[in-house]
Every structure is written in structure tokens, then in C-alpha cells.
Specification:
The complex is a heterodimer of chains A (816) and B (237).
Chain A lengths: L10 H9 L6 H11 L3 E5 L6 H14 L12 E4 L3 H18 L5 E4 L5 H9 L4 E4 L1 H8 L4 H5 L4 E4 L2 H4 L3 H16 L4 E6 L5 H8 L7 E5 L7 E4 L17 H10 L3 E4 L3 H13 L7 E4 L5 H13 L4 E4 L14 E5 L5 H8 L11 E5 L3 H15 L13 H14 L4 H8 L10 H13 L13 E3 L5 E3 L2 H10 L8 E7 L5 E9 H5 L6 E4 L2 E8 L3 E6 L19 H12 L9 H13 L8 E8 L2 E6 L5 H17 L4 E6 L4 E5 L8 H4 L7 H9 L1 H14 L5 E2 L2 E2 L9 H11 L4 H14 L2 H10 L4 E5 L7 H12 L3 H19 L1
Parallel strand pairs in A: 1-6, 1-7, 2-4, 2-5, 3-4, 5-6, 8-13, 9-11, 9-12, 10-11, 12-13, 16-20, 21-27
Antiparallel strand pairs in A: 14-15, 16-17, 18-19, 19-20, 21-22, 22-24, 23-24, 25-26
Chain B lengths: L6 E3 L5 E5 L2 E5 L5 E3 L4 E4 L6 H7 L8 H16 L3 E5 L8 H4 L2 H9 L5 E5 L14 E3 L1 E4 L2 E4 L10 E3 L4 E7 L2 E10 L4 E2 L10 E2 L14 E5 L4 E4 L8
Parallel strand pairs in B: 5-6, 6-7, 7-8, 10-11, 11-14, 12-15
Antiparallel strand pairs in B: 1-2, 2-3, 3-4, 4-5, 9-10, 12-13, 13-14, 13-16, 16-17
The chains are: A alpha/beta (816), B alpha/beta (237).
Chain lengths: 816, 237
């Protein structure tokens, strides 16, 4: 039923499909038809649906029917992937049909790893199809030859568009689309996306005008995945994120399958799970490890092992989220809660790349709240009910980089560039005032004190067009282009003779090292190492196979619990009919909570106050994710301080907040305490002083070009910058508080770090719906967050033992 | 009277130290105050560092000079010195004084009214302060101390210098903090950089090696207070 009339595509293509034992699928033919009609199109299809081929098919047909030319032609199709490795992988898949049909088409990739000679040749003699990344495209578009290079462009394909659109990289790509369209008016825009909850968000983002300008093409949905929540024997942990208790069961499941991908949320969890599984690996199953800090060489080895089918399981982080098809995976295991259903659906898509069979997945909750969360996620996935990111207005620091890139490429007219930028979906609401402010920033820094008018980076020429000041400025821009700002990293190397740096085993952020002293042992790349010394750019280590390693927390809490899953968890808690699916001890926990304290209705906020030791505690359970909780706890603490109850500290998890104080809090007016007006001055005041703001400012300053990461002749690491971004921030805030970059930093901090929007929604939802229960002692629900408090106070081995003692006390107190 | 090398707190948050025979206050601003000669010493102001980058196309906010001058004015108001000494690298580059905004230049000039202003020259500003008032010196003596911009190698009893922009990274229970600091062993003293955009060099860097006879102390600048830090609690970058 998928097969369509054979006349739609050239005989040569039909024959090729037939030779592979296939027929062109309906959505592939739909894409050909959309192309013939000259329409922009967004294809949404699950993994394994022949999505990439559907994207390329129209271009392959068009190119194969093109008469030979006497003069060299420009690029016909530009393919953009968010992953370097993906662009290489697709080149392989694309080459198969081209070679097997003998098509006269040249397809090449270009990434940061491409050699200089090849890059130069690509500029002189463009391939018909160029596969590249957004960062490489930024460099192309800041080049003087950009217009001539892209003027024949007929099609741009954005792969994995769901993963990139709501981000700063997406903003930059969005502006690039507008620029390419202006250079090549006949260019078609094609998006390839995994299943998403709101396709119209992406259609609007990628459209030059309105949602209707981009046709929506849907691939076949495929069967619903089979998702199980693992309930191992023994008690369900109260807290923690490692799922250590479930490792024997996870090992058995791995042993029973062909190849499993074991997804975790952080690199720490990856290293931990790897250690745990090898500790019980009596059958010597080939289990590998794959995460973003490992050296490229190590990752390539694991990928090759998967492709050969030589591995039984790979523990991995989001590095394997996106569409690379490395091997014959038949099971996806998620260790610890997935935090969102869309990401999980994409991860599950890694298992079984055949459309007609359901993918298999097992979720492994690490603690009691995660049992609820995993159950909610499994239900959502089976119902194909997805969460997603809301659209965000395009960032102004990214726009500043783009404006500079345009000036480096060719002189621009201010009005024309504004009109062009406003065709980018993310910048459709950009005001002229903001645009002018960005251009002024690019030119002079945009300061109220106009002392830099003599040193402009872009200047108006005699024709009234803006152009870059000189060759040096242009070169420096190109060295700093791109919207990815990585934390300063150090190479981890094995220490050789004479304490010299030897073989590189990977990279770590500076923050990771803050937690370690010389002589400490830690797990990295699946082995135990002793930290010997830190030099300017390297961490030197020696093997310490017998040591009992420290486990520094590492890249933790990357993904917040999605709003959507949080809602499902709250509903499940309230609906006792859903409890049957839960493990006995979790059900018992809910029952005692209901009995001793209470359970909130789905839209209520449960809030408990109780004394413990010589402290008073306020614990509430908003289920809105750690970022929003941190912000809320901080704002509440400020307020409690003003009320004179003497708050001493707070802690926040994905599910709950605990605040402790000298004086009791059970008589407070909770409605007033949680009033929405806390998002006004208090938030502003706190934000300005926050270290998070400084980090955010630095990122914006780098993207906007105020701070250069690299300049000719030298590569700067974070630690070598000769002035401190923090000092610049302090001075700017005092003397020019409305400066463009401060506005950028505030906007970024509010969305990315503190989830202010989500907090606002929460406060609105719980207005007049706070269920305050004063208690004599802590409740069963309060146990996990109370254990978090203990954890934060006592790191290290001795602390762990203390923690265990404290934990048993807490449980006894709450459940008896 | 403090013993040489000893340190004590004070109500204004400063740290009282002895350098050889001279008693001095290390102020939370990063300035040195020698009470009995009423001298205020600051090092490495780096005026116009922002515009120095702007000339080369990196548009740092142009407010560093006025911020630094503002801090100087507050220090002068708090101590009412009869001698104000800028201990070298007062300007970020040799042409920097020509880029001063007229208001900033006027405020700097006003600092010399009613007192002696001395510009000790440094490697960034070897030509001196242009048209601004004040005396220019390569080095000078003061109450038994020798003031120069760049510390000399080897033990230098009584030397007060800047140039190195010392910074201390301190281990604590909640993590680590990095702060500008004074460094002293009771014999010699190195001042932190006073300028608004001046970063710092970790005192464990080899540039500081061999300068101190005994284990020195880092006096880290906190909010309204100088903290005496044991050398053994310092961390490298």
C-alpha cells in the first residue's frame, strides 16, 4: 500500500529501488512531488523510515536529469547536520545510490576535520551536493565569495532539525537560511525531523514567511514501541541517580539481547554504570563506553565495534542520541529517568531500524520518584504523547555575530539586511530599534559613552553600505564564528617518563577538576586513574587499577524534568487506580504518605512544615524541575529572611524543595509567601549578583564577538583570556546597565538557567491551591529531599557512612 | 607592635602587617596604607585598558578608567593621604593617556590637589603620565621601604612592588574562590592590581618562585575585608 505509481520517478530510480528489493515509499514520493511543485517541505518520520533518502531523492533526480554544462556550476544541494560525524555518515549512505545508479553527481562533506587542501579545492570546484555543519556554513557566509558560490543553490536540507531549532545554534542557522535565500531566490528549504509534538513550530521556524509556506509531509508512524519499567527484586532506593540496585537485572537483560544501547543522562552515570557492569561481568560480555569526554579515537573504536556487531552493549550519553546508524541494536535501556518523552522516543528509535517492527525499551528508575516518572514516561511513549520545546525569540548576540559575518562577506544596506533578517522565523518579531542596537554594537560596542566611534569594526562606505573595517577584523571574525561555546577543557593524558604528557585519553571541564586533589583517584574512560599533576593544558594521570576511586559529580542534572512529564506524574500520584502498576514498596510509600500527610490533587501544591532536630523545615513538591526549583527556593528564602524566620539554607531536586530555618514556619501566610510578585524586584536583584549571570554573560560576549576565543597566532583557552569576563560584567552593569549584552544575558539566564517562565506558570497554577499540612515530623515524601541535604553537606567516603546512618533514621521516622 | 611577618585584623577590614621595621595596612581595596607617613600606594591601575583593546577592534566597555578613578577617589577620601603613589603600569599602553576622556583626566588631576602625587613608572607606561600633574620616578624610598614597579629577583628586604597581579585560589568546603591578593613574607610585599579590568596571576605560578625567604602569606581581598590565608591552603589554577 506504500507503493505509488511508478511513473512518478525516473525508471532508473525505480530499477534501483527494485534491485535493492524495495519500492519508493509514499513519503519519499511525496517529497519528490513537493520539490517538483517548488515547495518548501518539512518531513516528519520516525527513525528507520528512509528519511535521509527522502530528503535527497528530489535532488538526485533533478541532478540526474540535468543536461551537461560547459561551465562549472555552483552547489546544487546543501545538506546541514548538527553533528560532524553525521555529515560523514550520510556521505556514505548517499554515495551508495549515486554509485549504484552511476549518477553523474559529486557529493562531498566538509567539517572542521576536513583537510585544508580539500577545503580549498571545494571552494574552487564546488561539488553538486555539499554536506556540512552550521559552523562551517557560518564560515562560508562570512567569505567574500559566498554570493557567487551559492547563487545556483536549489535546495538546502536541514537534518535532525528538531534537535537544533530551539537553540542559539538554531538561531544562527535560521539567519543563514535567510541569507542563502536572498542569494539564491529559487532555493527550496527542506527539513527532516524526528516525531515532534508541534510540527508547526518547526514549520514556522524554517519558513521564509508563514507556516503555510512549508508543506508538511508525514512518514508512516510505525508501530508503538514496547516499553517496560524495570522493577528489580529488593527495595526501591529512596534517593540517588545511579540505579546501582538494578545492575544485576540490567546485566541479565543485556545478556539476553543481541546488542543493547544503555543510555544515561550524565557522563558520571556512564562511567559508574560501566564500572558496575564490568564488576559483575562473569561472562566477559563485550560492553563498551561512549561519551563526549572520551577521545575521538576511543569513540571511533566503539562505533566501529558496534557497526561490526562485535559489542553486546554500549553505555552512552546523548552523544548517541542523533541519527547515526551504527549497528544492529535490538534494545534500548534507559538508566535513571529519561526526564522527557521526546528525547526518550528518539533514543528508543536507535533500537531496531526497521519500520514494521516495534522498538524495545526498558526504563530503569533509580529511586522512588523516578518510578513514578518512568511509569508516566512509558505511558506517554506508548500513547506517542510527546513533550517539546516552545519557540523562543532569536538571540541578539547571535544576530550580532551574523551581522558581522555579513559585513565580512560583502557590503550591506542597513534596511535590506533588516528585511532579510526579519524573514528568519526566530527573528520575525525583531524590532528596528533592536536591529539598530545590534548593528551599533557590532560597529562600536554600542556603549552609551560613545568613545569608540573612531575604532569602528564595520564602517559605512561612500555608497552608504556597511563593510568591515579591514582585513584583520575580517580574519578575526572568521576565527571566532559559531554559536557553540564550550567550557574550558583540559586534556587528560597518561603521564610518561620525566612527568611528560603522554597518550591522550579524553577531555574534562575545569569544573570537574575542582573536586579533585593531587593523589586522588577517579574513574575515567572506564578505568581508575590517579591524578598526578595539572599543567597549563593537560591533566596528567597514572593508572591506579586497585584503588577505590572517588566519584566526583560530573555534568549532572543536564536535563530538567519536562513540564509535560511532571503533569503526568502529578496525575498518577492522585489517581490511585494507576498504583497497581507500581512496585509494592513504592505503593506502600504513597499509601503511608496519604495517611500521614496527604497527596496533592493534580493542580495543587503540597506543602509540609515540620520541626526536626533544632531546625524547622518547609518542604514542598512542585515537580517542576531542578532549575525552576532552585530559583523558587532562592526567592522564598529571601522572603523568609525578610519575614524574620531566619532561613538557614535550601536544597532543590527535580521534584521538591526543602528550606530550613531557626524559627517555625507553620503559621506563615503561604498564599502570600508564594505570591507571583516574587518574580519582580527580588528576581532582578538576585539575578544581577548571581554567578550564573556572569557565566551567561561570558557566553553571550563570546558569541557576539566582544570576547574573542581565538586570534591570529594563538588559541586561547578559558584560562588564558587576558582580562576577566567577570570584571567586564561588573563594570558594564554599573556604568551601562541597559547594554545589549546585559539584556542578552538576562534573557538567557531567565530561560536556560532559572526556568523563570516555568516558575511563573507554576505560581499561576497553584494560586489559592496550596495545600499546607503542618506535621510533627517529616513525611514519607520528604525523605528523599532530606537525604539530599545530608549529601550536600558531607562529600567524600566518611560522609557516605554518615549519610547512611542519617538515612535510616529518616526512613524510620517517616514510615513508622 | 607587631612582630615582623605577623598580621592582625582591624575595624576597617584592613590587615595590619609589618614589613621590616615599618607597620602598614593592607586595605580591602587592594591599596597599601602607611599611616605614619600618610602614604597611600596602589599598583597597576592600567587606565584605558578597555580602549587599548578597542583600538585593535575588540570593543571592551569604555568604563574601566572611570571605575578605577572612582575607587581611587573613595580610597583617598577614606584615608586623606598626603602622599599618593601609583606604583607603575598606571596606563595600559604608552598612548593611553592621550585617549583619556577629558572628565576622567580632570578627576585624576584633582587627586593631586593638596597632596603629592607620584607616578612610579612601569613597563606599560615607561614614558610617564603625559600632561597630568605629579612627579615621575623610576623608584623611590618611603619610611624605610623601597617602592618600585617590578619586583627584583632574590630576597629584597623592604621592597614594595606590583607588576605580577597576584591572585589566590583558595580551597574551602563549598568549592574554591579566586581573589586578588597581597603577598608578603614580612620582608617584602607585592600589591594586587588595582585597575578595574586587571586580571590576576596565581601566586603559585613560577613567576613568584624564589622571591620569598620564608613561606609567605597571601592576603586575599574579600568584600570589605582582607583575609590572611595560609600558603598551604592555596590551590593552583
Amino acid at each position: 500500500m506504500d507503493a505509488a505509481p511508478a511513473t512518478q520517478i525516473p525508471e532508473r530510480f525505480n530499477a534501483w529501488f527494485a534491485s535493492r528489493g524495495w519500492a519508493a515509499r509514499k513519503h519519499q514520493l511525496d517529497m519528490v512531488e513537493r520539490a517538483r511543485a517548488g515547495r518548501h517541505a518539512l518531513l516528519i518520520a520516525p527513525t528507520g523510515g528512509g528519511k535521509t533518502l527522502a530528503g535527497f531523492l528530489p535532488s538526485l533526480i533533478e541532478l540526474s536529469e540535468r543536461p551537461p554544462a560547459n561551465t562549472p556550476r555552483g552547489i546544487h544541494t546543501l545538506y546541514i547536520s548538527p553533528l560532524k560525524a553525521l555529515a560523514v555518515d550520510v556521505e556514505r549512505n548517499l554515495m551508495a545510490p549515486i554509485l549504484q545508479m552511476g549518477l553523474p553527481i559529486v557529493a562531498e562533506s566538509r567539517t572542521g576535520d576536513t583537510g585544508v587542501a580539500r577545503k580549498q579545492r571545494q571552494r574552487i570546484k564546488p561539488p553538486d551536493i555539499l554536506l556540512t555543519t552550521p559552523e562551517q556554513l557560518a564560515l562560508f557566509l562570512a567569505w567574500e565569495g559566498a554570493r557567487a558560490y551559492f547563487e545556483d543553490l536549489r535546495c538546502v536540507i536541514l537534518d535532525e532539525v528538531h534537535a537544533i531549532w530551539p537553540s542559539k545554534r538554531g538561531d544562527l542557522l535560521n539567519l543563514h537560511l535567510a541569507r542563502l535565500q536572498q542569494i539564491a531566490p529559487n532555493m527550496r528549504r527542506v527539513g527532516l525531523s524526528a516525531t515532534v509534538d508541534e510540527p508547526d513550530f518547526i514549520r514556522n521556524w524554517m519558513s521564509p514567511g508563514t507556516v503555510e509556506d512549508v508543506d508538511l509531509v508525514l512518514g508512516p508512524p510505525g508501530p508503538a514501541p514496547e516499553v517496560q519499567v524495570l522493577v528489580p527484586d529488593g527495595p526501591t532506593p529512596w534517593t540517588g541517580h545511579t540505579a546501582q540496585h538494578a545492575m544485576p537485572e540490567v546485566y541479565d537483560i543485556i545478556a539476553r539481547h543481541r546488542m543493547s544501547l544503555v543510555f544515561v543522562n550524565t557522563r558520571f552515570q556512564a562511567e559508574f554504570a560501566f564500572q558496575e557492569l564490568w564488576a559483575i561481568n562473569d561472562d566477559n560480555l563485550p560492553i563498551g563506553l561512549h561519551h563526549g569526554s572520551l577521545s575521538a579515537e576511543q569513540r571511533r573504536k566503539v562505533e566501529a565495534g558496534m557497526a561490526r556487531g562485535a559489542l553486546k552493549a554500549v553505555i552512552c550519553t546523548s552523544t548517541l542520541d542523533l541519527g547515526i546508524d551504527w549497528g544492529d541494536v535490538d534494545l534500548v535501556i534507559q538508566l535513571a529517568a529519561p526526564k522527557g518523552s521526546s528525547r526518550m522516543v528518539q533514543r528508543i528509535g536507535r533500537a531496531n531500524h526497521r519500520l514494521d517492527e516495534p522498538s524495545q525499551a526498558v526504563l530503569v528508575p533509580a529511586n522512588r520518584f523516578e518510578v513514578l516518572e518512568c511509569r508516566a514516561a512509558a505511558d506517554a511513549m506508548i500513547a506517542n504523547d510527546l513533550d517539546g520545546d516552545p519557540p523562543r525569540p532569536g538571540a541578539l548576540d547571535v544576530l550580532a555575530q551574523h551581522v558581522m559575518g555579513c559585513a565580512c562577506s560583502e557590503p550591506f544596506d542597513l534596511l535590506a539586511l533588516y528585511d532579510e533578517v526579519a524573514t528568519a522565523g526566530a527573528y520575525r518579531d525583531l524590532t528596528w530599534e533592536d536591529f539598530e542596537a545590534v548593528v551599533d554594537f557590532v560597529s562600536t560596542g554600542g556603549y552609551a559613552l560613545r568613545t569608540y566611534d573612531h575604532y569602528r569594526r564595520i564602517v559605512k562606505n561612500a555608497d552608504g553600505l556597511w563593510t568591515v573595517r579591514n582585513e584583520d577584523t575580517r580574519r578575526r571574525h572568521r576565527m571566532n564564528a559559531g554559536a557553540i561555546v564550550a567550557a574550558a577543557v583540559l586534556s587528560v593524558r597518561v603521564m610518561g617518563r620525566g612527568r611528560r604528557p603522554g597518550r591522550k585519553i579524553g577531555e574534562v571541564e575545569e569544573g570537574f577538576l575542582e573536586q579533585l586533589e593531587t593523589g586522588d583517584t577517579f574513574v575515567f574512560a572506564g578505568q581508575v586513574w590517579r591524578l598526578e599533576t595539572i599543567t597549563a593544558m593537560d591533566v596528567l594521570v597514572t593508572p591506579a587499577p586497585k584503588a577505590d576511586p572517588k566519584m566526583p559529580s560530573w555534568g549532572s542534572a543536564k536535563f530538567p524534568l519536562s513540564t509535560f512529564l511532571a503533569k503526568r506524574v502529578r496525575e498518577m500520584m492522585w489517581d490511585t487506580s494507576k498504583w497497581a502498576a507500581l512496585p509494592d514498596d513504592v505503593r506502600e510509600w504513597l499509601e503511608i504518605q496519604k495517611d500521614k500527610s496527604g497527596l496533592p490533587e493534580p493542580d495543587q501544591l503540597l506543602l509540609e512544615t515540620f520541626p526536626r532536630g533544632n531546625r524547622h523545615y518547609l518542604v514542598c513538591y512542585p515537580f517542576e524541575g531542578r532549575a525552576a526549583h532552585n530559583t523558587l527556593a532562592m526567592l522564598l528564602t529571601r522572603r523568609l529572611d525578610r519575614l524574620g524566620v531566619g532561613p538557614l539554607g535550601f536544597t532543590a531536586s527535580d521534584y521538591a524543595i526543602a528550606i530550613w530555618s531557626l524559627k517555625p514556619m507553620d503559621r506563615l501566610d503561604m498564599a502570600a509567601l508564594f505570591d507571583q510578585d516574587m518574580l519582580g524586584d527580588d528576581l532582578e536583584a538576585w539575578l544581577a549578583e548571581s554567578f550564573m549571570m556572569k557565566a551567561t554573560f561570558k557566553k553571550a560576549a563570546i558569541i557576539a564577538g566582544l570576547i574573542e576565543r581565538r586570534f591570529p597566532g594563538q588559541e586561547k583557552s578559558g584560562r588564558q583570556i587576558t582580562f576577566s569576563a567577570d570584571l567586564v560584567y561588573d563594570v558594564l552593569r554599573k556604568h551601562d546597565p541597559d547594554h545589549l549584552l546585559l539584556r542578552c544575558a538576562r534573557a538567557d539566564a531567565a530561560t536556560d538557567l532559572m526556568d523563570v517562565r516555568r516558575l511563573g506558570d507554576l505560581l499561576d497554577r497553584i494560586k489559592d491551591r496550596i495545600r499546607h499540612i503542618p506535621l510533627d515530623h517529616l513525611s514519607p515524601f520528604a525523605v528523599p529531599i532530606m537525604m539530599e541535604i545530608g549529601k550536600q553537606r558531607s562529600p567524600g567516603g566518611a560522609g557516605e557512612m554518615m549519610l547512611e546512618d542519617v538515612a535510616n533514621d529518616l526512613i524510620a521516622e517517616a514510615m513508622e | 607592635m607587631l612582630k615582623s611577618g605577623a598580621a592582625a585584623g582591624s575595624p576597617c577590614g584592613s590587615l595590619r602587617v609589618r614589613l621590616g621595621a615599618t607597620e602598614a595596612m593592607l586595605r580591602p581595596s587592594g591599596a597599601l596604607w602607611v599611616e605614619h607617613v600618610r602614604a597611600l600606594v596602589v599598583a597597576d591601575l592600567h587606565f584605558e585598558k578597555g580602549s587599548s583593546y578597542a583600538v585593535r577592534g575588540q570593543m571592551l566597555p569604555p568604563y574601566d578608567t572611570r571605575e578605577t578613578v572612582g575607587r581611587l577617589e573613595r580610597e583617598v577620601e577614606a584615608t586623606a593621604p598626603s602622599l599618593l603613589i601609583f606604583l607603575g603600569d598606571s596606563f595600559h599602553d604608552r598612548k593611553a593617556h592621550a585617549r583619556l576622556a577629558p572628565q576622567d583626566a580632570a578627576r585624576i588631576a584633582a587627586l593631586s590637589v593638596g597632596r603629592t602625587l607620584v607616578w612610579v613608572t612601569g613597563n606599560h607606561d615607561a614614558d610617564g603620565p603625559g600632561d597630568l600633574p605629579g612627579e615621575v620616578e623610576a623608584e623611590m624610598t618611603l619610611a624605610g621601604l623601597l617602592l618600585r614597579h617590578e619586583p627584583e629577583r632574590g630576597p629584597q628586604p623592604g621592597e614594595v612592588s606590583g607588576h605580577l597581579h597576584p591572585c589566590a585560589k583558595i580551597r574551602g568546603t563549598g568549592g574554591r574562590v579566586r581573589r586578588k591578593c597581597f603577598v608578603t613574607d614580612g620582608e617584602r610585599l607585592i600589591l594586587p592590581a588595582f585597575g578595574a579590568y586587571t586580571g590576576g596571576l596565581n601566586v603559585l605560578d613560577r613567576a613568584f618562585a624564589g622571591m620569598f625567604g620564608m613561606l609567605p602569606m597571601a592576603a586575599a581581598l574579600g568584600v570589605g575585608r582582607v583575609h590572611a590565608i595560609d600558603w598551604r591552603s592555596l590551590a593552583p589554577d
